[in-house]
Fold this protein.
Amino acid sequence: MLFVDRSDAGRHLARRLRHLRGTDVVVLGLPRGGVPVASEVAADLHAPLDVIVVRKLGVPFQPEYGFGAIGEDGIRIVEDHIVRQTRLTGTQIAEVEARERIVLDRRVSRLRGDHPPVPLAGRTVIIVDDGIATGSTARAACMVARARGARRVTLAVPVGSVEGAAALRQDADEVVCLHTPARFSAIGEWYDDFSQVTDQEVTILLDKATAALPGPGSEDQDPAEVMLNVAGARLPGSLVIPDRAAGLVVFAHGSGSSRHSPRNRLVAAALNRAGLGTLLVDLLTGDEELSHAYVFNVPLLAARLAGITGWLRSAAATAAIPLGYFGASTGAAAALWAAGASPPLPVTAIVSRGGRPDLAGPRLAQVQAPTLLIVGGADRLVLDLNRQAQAQLTCENRLEVIPGATHLFEEPGALEQVADLAQGWFTRHFAQPISANVANAGVGPAKGKAL
């Protein structure tokens, strides 16, 4: 036997990873067996610990052959060349994804509970498992970590097959495998104690690490968790209001996203540090997020955003603070649709990140709030749609293109550029008084936790 148990393996693995100590690193354990190993690595490196929950998307007639993967926050990766090779239809892809998304969401709910995922954007990520056999799950985890914005991915395991470890060098920037025995049949044969890890054990390890994880707000202020009753839906949110806040930005999340979006949390943290308040709130319930009929219902999303705006305007702590909208994907369409209402909502400025403003077409000409559209230069389709939408805007507007960035702004430094642009846009316009007809426009209040 190479290792007494997973904790022993984790301590050995940590010593090989000490060159990463002191860097902006996050340790992610693959549930469930990888989490006890990852816990020891995180403790040794003084790094935050989290889980990375993924599901491989397998070809229906050959499930072991993956054509993509899905993860939290609506992350979806599909490898087009495999789809073409296997001649998968759109219906087959959708059926596999829907089935695996249900399984993933259930597992996330069991393991993570109320703990939001640790933001990965711009950071070094160490993905840890208790071993590698074929490596398919580890490969999916690497793909998802990159899609969540990881700057660099290290895959670390105590033991693995020669073939599995070699194949994963194409997916990770670095592969650390302590032992690759010439004869390898099963991971468990290299542990004296390889007993099954329970969901409860995983939750306990995450609970122990949670106290060290930063929230999405400023360094000295934790977010207030709120629950809003809007148009019959109960919508959870995270609210941060710094002292003497110059403005408050409501985040309208896009398809498959939520208030836990690591990209939006990174932008929100930057705004908080600049003295701006933020409200990250889900516009859909958990069940609704699984249905495209809700995800792409822009008028519904906009109506809920308007209700949230009314709640903020009716609360004593936020009534006098200038409001802005930050929208991503379909959330940007909802923000523009809501802002184009008549009478206009009291919105001072709008920022769209990789958004779909074209979906707000009927309302674009009525938007009065100054609008900044941010798009990645490599996101060509969305860039074209933004240019078309910009031509319909009559308000002050600007299109900023981040060279080389793709739709998720996962390239090093890209998301930080988004945060800087958003901060500058909001700060400048919050300092300018909005017109009286907008400031006094009536919006219906929503019920929620008192501030």
In short: The chain has 14 helices and 17 strands. Confidence is low (pLDDT under 50) at residues 212-220, 433-445, 447-451. The chain has two domains: 6-196, 224-446.
